[in-house]
């Protein structure tokens, strides 16, 4: 399934030009009036972690302008519908500022109660993960089963669902152990579908981790938008920027819909604040951000 939008354009050859180097602008350092427990979204006050997950997902995208080419509009909507409903633990950290311990405990409890699924991003860091409501994860499994006419695929998914019910805390699983339960063919099918992923490691024992198809698109979206934000703020001598200035640059970016598919600015800001790349603080006329780590 291709999600790349390729309008037909004439080929243009350009000479290689020397890259221009930017020097940070000479501006006065912003003066914070408050830096404690600052919420990025003043109108978001979730009562539960599941509510916070819904809030992040509901505000992931901006409306697609009607003046865009209809084919391009359709491409953007197709891309958005294609993505799994995932949020980062770091985004939840930002929703509940200075409450990381609370978030970690809530995630552990919801995971144990089979209310959420966790997708590990780094094999040596169990706190760097993506979170998905269990009902949404099951919906993806059922969708794959219904779309397939292969009885082996359907059986493999059904057995995998039963395995997850019996082993709700599964994150990393020895391959030989799950093969004993599901069978070699089913494990191979689940790896091919993207519900299991091999963990590269130097030991002789192969480990698999629970996964979800297409989550790499979320990571790519994060990396692309993060690069834009960091590059934009780094043009400032003090590596900081007012929210209104950043918002203006984000909205004027010509690649906003091509690269970001109309991503809402606050979606990536929550991620960067939660992971510790940015800090948010209050100034006289609103909020501002400062880079505090690379």
UniProtKB/TrEMBL annotation:
Pfam family, one: Stk19
BP GO terms, sorted: positive regulation of Ras protein signal transduction
Region (Disordered) residue spans: 1-26
Composition-biased stretches (Basic and acidic residues): 13-26
Signal peptide: none
InterPro entries referenced in this protein's UniProt entry, alphabetically: STK19-like
Superkingdom of origin organism: Eukaryota
PANTHER family registered for this protein in UniProt: SERINE/THREONINE-PROTEIN KINASE 19, SERINE_THREONINE-PROTEIN KINASE 19
Assigned protein family: Belongs to the STK19 family.
Name of this protein: Serine-threonine protein kinase 19
Organism, scientific name: Wickerhamomyces anomalus (strain ATCC 58044 / CBS 1984 / NCYC 433 / NRRL Y-366-8)
